[in-house]
Amino acid sequence: MSDDASLFDDGKDPEALRTIGEVSKALGIKPHVLRYWEEQFPMLKPTTRAGGRRYYRPADIALVRRIDDLVNRQGYTLKGARKALSSKDQPVGEAISAPHPQQREPREIEAPALVPQLRAIRDRLASALDA
């Protein structure tokens, strides 16, 4: 990940507080997602000023970037990302680069009696769409 200063091309000091709109635009994450992540990740606590307006510190922005990487690029669930970020045994950098658990190959279900029922359901759905 590149440093946070290169995310913002606005002439502000790299340590400046950023609004939720600025963070949203720079990271490509919608504001409602950022607000939801604040609820889901207790360690993400931007400062608030009068009127409840959120201001993200550089540390908050770095955390949002780590959450984004875990959830949107590596495929972690929110629960898994929360666990990876709060892990005492494993630093966040290692948690982010941890390999994904192996996915099992899909297997064929042996239920030939269901095939006619499933085909009938499929045909009814198709005819409902055509109607």
From TrEMBL:
Ranges for region Disordered: 83-107
GO MF assignments: DNA binding; DNA-binding transcription factor activity
The UniProt record lists the keyword ATP-binding: no
Residue stretches making up the HTH merR-type domain: 19-87
InterPro entries in UniProt: DNA-bd_dom_put_sf, MerR-type_HTH_dom, MerR_fam
Protein keywords: DNA-binding
CDD domains: HTH_MlrA-like_sg2 (cd04765)
Full protein name: MerR family transcriptional regulator
